[in-house]
Amino acid sequence: MSSPVENVVIIGTGCAGLTAAIYTARSSLNPLVLEGPLPGGQLTTTSEVENFPGFPHGVDGFQLTQNMREQATRFGTRFESALVDKVDFTSTPRQLFCGDRLILAKTVIIATGASPRLTGIPGEKELYGGKGVTTCATCDGAFYRKMEVAVLGGGDSAAEEALFLTRFASKVYLVHRRDTLRASKIMADRAVAHEKIQMVWDSVPVEVLGVPEGAVNGLKIKNVKTGVESVLPVKGIFVAIGHIPNTGPFAPPLEVDEGGYFKPQPGSQVQTNVPGVYVAGDCSDHIYRQAITAAGMGCQAAIEAERWLAEHHG
Ligand code: NAP
Question: 6-115+243-313 in CATH: which number?
Fold first, then answer.
């Protein structure tokens, strides 16, 4: 079953996708936005956003995406829940397959974001979700009041999660595989200095304990310098070891870099190797990964799509 040819189809409803929707809708392009498994994107799993310009007192992440959605809707954006599982970018218009549905598009903006990376150690998958292993302190931190928890990773996310968890947990172990944090100095200093955070340097997670019981009751770790294994008596494990870009059925044909992120053409942040197909946000940005930079890329992709339509479809 195919639909009429769309001017622009935007895939993803995070900051990048919604900003692209606002811009293309305001240009009367009547965009169709396809909503995936996490409507609103990663920002909806954050509590307070303090660095998005225009909100001097901060703004709730969920509310911010709701505002963007309302703004996009006001100018005529259509939203539909659909997962693209196959594409054909050799044909014109471009073809997007969602199960047995075919969507035809003159231009496509892919803003599918990135998903949290997991360690793959035994017990992690079995106890993921409500059983003690999670990737979102903002979502789940409050469940660990007065308990000991571990955060895995050494970047800004790990430091941020650990600091946030100090509001609830009695103790936070920050387990990092090296002896210095990758996090920015301000975040690293704050985490290291916090009385509730205990740094566990040079250590990798080996196994999440608690599978037969159905709830986390410890984390086995190994010191990479001494080889000694030990168990942290934690009830919650927060994995913060980076993200995997959601490039799904688009790569190939779209080019990706060595980290798996969409690779824009030289001289552009959003133009892919397929004319009329653009990328925006965390699926192609492994450097900044901020709400405001994702929004900026969404804006660029929208303007490029408009220009493409004006040049090729009059
Ligand atoms: P990241 O900077 O890539 O850090 C990932 C961390 O996980 C690294 O410390 C890495 O160790 C560790 N790691 C990776 N794979 C591992 C594994 N299999 N086992 C154990 N440890 C592993 O990711 P991120 O912290 O999510 O940050 C991503 C980007 O978002 C960064 O640019 C960051 O600045 C930004 N960010 C900013 C803020 C903020 O400004 N408030 C908050 C969050 C994120 P190594 O250090 O040894 O590689």
Answer: 3.50.50.60
Question: For 54-73, what is the mean pLDDT?
Answer: 94
pLDDT tens sequence across 7-20: 999 999 999 999 99
Q: What is the pLDDT of residue 42?
A: 76
Q: Catalytic residue at 136?
A: yes
Mean pLDDT computed over 162-176? 97
Question: Both tokens of residue 240?
Answer: 């913060």
Count of alpha carbons within 13 angstroms of residue 24, beta-carbon side: 32
Residue 98 annotated to the active site: no
The question of whether 299 is a catalytic residue gets the answer no
**87 DSSP assignment:** E
Q: Six-digit token pair at 95?
A: 């073809």
The 3-state secondary structure of 115-129 reads EECCCCCCCCCCCEC
Alpha-helix runs per DSSP H in the chain:
15-26, 61-74, 137-140, 156-165, 185-193, 291-313
CA neighbor of 174 nearest in space, from 193, 185, 123, 209: 193
1, pLDDT greater than 80: no
Q: Which helix (H) or strand (E) holds 215?
A: none
Atom of ligand 1 nearest to the CA of 287: 32
Helix (H) or strand (E) holding 246: none
**Is the predicted pLDDT of residue 130 greater than 90, yes or no?**
no
CA of 157 from ligand 1 middle (Å) equals: 6
CATH class for the domain made up of 118-239: alpha beta
Q: What is the distance between the alpha carbons of residues 270 and 56, in angstroms, rounded to a whole number?
A: 29
CA-153 nearest atom, ligand 1: 7
Where in the chain are the domains? 6-115+243-313, 118-239
